[in-house]
Amino acid sequence: MKDGILNPAQLLEYFQGHRRVTRKTIEKFPEKDLFEFSIGGMRPFSQMIEELLAIAGPGLKQIVEKTQEPHAESLGLSTKEEILKCWDEQTEIINTYFKQIPAEKFPEKFNLYGQYNLPIIHSIFYFIDNEIHHRAQGFTYLRALGIEPPFFWEM
Prior knowledge:
Blueprint: H1 8-28, H2 31-36, H3 45-65, H4 80-98, E1 109-112, E2 116-119, H5 120-144
Antiparallel strand pairs: 1-2
Helix pairs in contact: 1-4, 1-5, 3-4, 3-5
């Protein structure tokens, strides 16, 4: 990462910027629609968010602690308030564990969740890319509900 485009602090800020936009997206949903609305057989946005909550924070923790466990399929969250509380808790977990990974470790392979033996930096990009992907689905849901999504560039 010495010759890279971003240093670890900048990458973490970029990641957390996306998380701030996703949090704003969650906030825009009426509670009922967060858990029930879907289009074309896709999951409700609450289930997509539970996936994100089960991946990034726990994944970074596994990388730092060198453990390999499958990620949770469901966290059993049933209210918007619970989702936002968990989101904020995971934000702190991400901050804590991300900062414990030295840049020189990013190219090292790690078997994330005991399934994906990839360089650590690829796992970090997966956390970010997966969030962007699901947030875009949430934006589509919001537009279908007649609700303006947050501006994606206001990170």
